[in-house]
Amino acid sequence: MTFLVCCCRCSTRRESRSWRVSSSLDRFAAVLLACMLVCALAMTDVCLLAQEPDIVSAVNPNKSSETRVVITKIDGLQVTVTANRLANNGVSLEDGETLGWDEVRELQTGNRLLGDDPDVITVRLREQGVLYARQVTLSDGVVALATDLTDIQYPLVDVRSIRFPATEGETEWATLLREPSGEVDRLLVTTSRGPRVVAGLLESIDADGVQLYFEDASRRVARDKILGIVPAALTETASPKFLVQVVDRSVLIADSLAVADGNWQIGWQGQVQPFPHETIVSVRVRSDRVLYVSDLPPVLDEVQTIVAPSAKNRVDTNVTGLPMALRLPPSPNATPADRDVRTFSKGWGTRSRSRLVFDLPPGFNRLNGWVGIDTSTQGRGNCQAIVLLDDIQVFSQTITGDATAVPLDVPVQGGRRLELRVETGEELDLADWVNWADLRLLK
Question: 341-366 burial, b for 16+ CB within 10 Å, e for fewer?
Answer without folding.
Answer: eeebbbbbbbbbbbbbbbebeeebee
